Amino acid sequence: MLVLGIETSCDESAAAVVEDGRRVRSSVIFSQVPLHQPYGGVVPEIASRSHVEKIGGVIGEAMREAFASGAGGGPVLPEWWRQIDAVAVTYGPGLASSLIVGLSAAKGLALRLGKPLVGINHIEAHLHSVFLAPSAPEPLETGPLLGLVVSGGHTCWIDSDRPGRYRIIGQTLDDAAGEAFDKAAKLLGLGYPGGPAIDRVARQAARRDAVAFPKGSPRPGNPALGDMRAELCVSFSGLKTALMYRLREHPPRDEAEVAEIAAAYQEAIVEALAERCARALRGSRYRALAVGGGVSLNRRLRERLHEVTADAGVTLLMAEPRFCGDNAAMIAGLAGMGVGVTGEEAMRLDVAPALEAGE
Ligand code: KG4
Ligand code: ZN
User: Fold this and answer.
1) Cα(127) to centroid of ligand 2, in Å?
2) Residue 58 to residue 44: CA distance in whole angstroms
3) Which ligand is closest to the CA of 12, given by its number?
4) Are residues 235 and 269 in the same domain?
5) Is 229 inside any structural domain?
6) Which domain does 197 fall in, by range?
7) Which of 36, 122, 123, 207 has its CA 20 to 30 A from that of 355?
């Protein structure tokens, strides 16, 4: 089963060819980071225009990388297209104007090739990214697992018995963890994207407890909780406000102080995430913790999650660094596991900017 995957939910134009849900034959990512850098965040109009310009070339490159024996150039041969069994694409969540580019490209390709289209949920795909490592266990033999997806747009805990079955058990009530990193880096003058910058600077800090930031606990009775358990949810908006006041009242005098503030801020986010994982794992039936999304690249988070899973006696599954952020291999991979919207329904799919895991 050879699946061509397409991903354009935010600011990465990506395509990949994956065999049997696990074996990555190619994965091409065109990152728009330099385009958005001057604005300190993703500008939707710039993102969608860039997707339109790049996605065709990115798909071609993914096909060449998957099928061509020699390096570089050359047309995509008709016999390569014939070997593709399905075209998978992210239809949500994400920016509507970005999603529509990938979804339209995928529909067009599927029609032209006479191959089935598979609509994939981006958050569920982030969880599948942990299974793309050759050393990872078999997805069907790993569950039940606790999933944590932490990115610029999402922070949620997911209960999953097996690929295709997902239920959100906790989430952020406001900002995503990556967003909290990005906003802090902006306030600290560390540039965009903020997560990698804070991660780097925090490592230079002499201590992690220079500032006592709020712990990310939601206020009891917050209506956004719905029927979720408060102890498995987080709220990061207070953290950003606390940083703003701190910088206003005590502007850092040198780089060493900036590093200490960054380290304390990072610690607050990482502790909030690690604590929810520990709570969800305690006395549970989970056999593994699977972590995906750009923020899972954070070194301090990785360190803490190693400790949490060792304490709980469960396996920690993390994606390879190249599959932590947005990529299309996770999209093609999940489709290759038989997950996703298929058939007539897939061709009628519209973008779903607010789609949730398990929906
Ligand atoms: O998964 P991703 O590439 O795109 C989204 O779906 O959002 O995640 C991007 C997010 C950004 O907010 C970025 O600041 C954050 O991941 N990030 C990090 C690190 N590397 C990327 N956050 C903390 N530490 C890092 N090392
Ligand atoms: Zn993502």
Assistant:
1) 10
2) 20
3) 1
4) yes
5) yes
6) 142-318
7) 36
Residues 72 and 151 occupy one common structural domain: no
Q: Can you read off the two tokens belonging to residue 229?
A: 């358990």
* Binding site membership of 181 for ligand 1 (Cβ less than 6 Å): yes
Domain count of the chain?
A: 2
Question: Looking at ligand 1, which atom is closest to the CA of residue 324?
Answer: 1
Between the CA of 244 and the centroid of ligand 1 the distance, in Å, is: 21
Is 136 within a domain?
no
Q: Whose CA is nearest to atom 13 of ligand 1?
A: 195
Could you tell me if residue 306 is inside a domain? Answer: yes
Residues 297 and 327 in one domain: no
Measured CA to CA, the distance from residue 216 to residue 76 in angstroms comes to: 50
Give the CA angle between residues 227, 280, 125 to the nearest 5°.
Answer: 80
Q: What is the pLDDT along the chain (359 residues), one digit of tens a residue?
A: 999 999 999 999 999 999 999 999 999 999 999 999 888 888 999 999 999 999 999 999 999 999 997 666 788 999 999 999 999 999 999 999 999 999 999 999 999 999 999 999 999 999 999 999 989 999 999 999 999 999 999 999 999 999 999 999 999 999 999 999 999 999 999 988 899 999 999 999 999 999 999 989 998 788 888 888 899 999 999 999 999 999 999 999 999 999 999 999 999 999 999 999 999 999 999 999 999 999 999 999 999 999 999 999 999 999 999 999 999 999 999 999 999 999 999 999 999 999 999 99
CA distance 221 to 226: 9
Q: What does the chain come to in residues?
A: 359
Q: How far, in Å, CA of 210 to CA of 231, rounded?
A: 26
Cα of 176 from ligand 1 centre, angstroms: 10
Q: Decide if 354 is inside a domain.
A: no
Pocket test for ligand 1, best of 155, 200, 295, 305 (most atoms within 8 A of CB): 295
Q: Are residues 150 and 123 in the same domain?
A: no
Distance (Å, whole) CA 145 – CA 318: 13
Residue 108 near residue 26, CB atoms below 8 Å: no
Beta bridge partners of residue 147, listed in sequence order? 158, 290
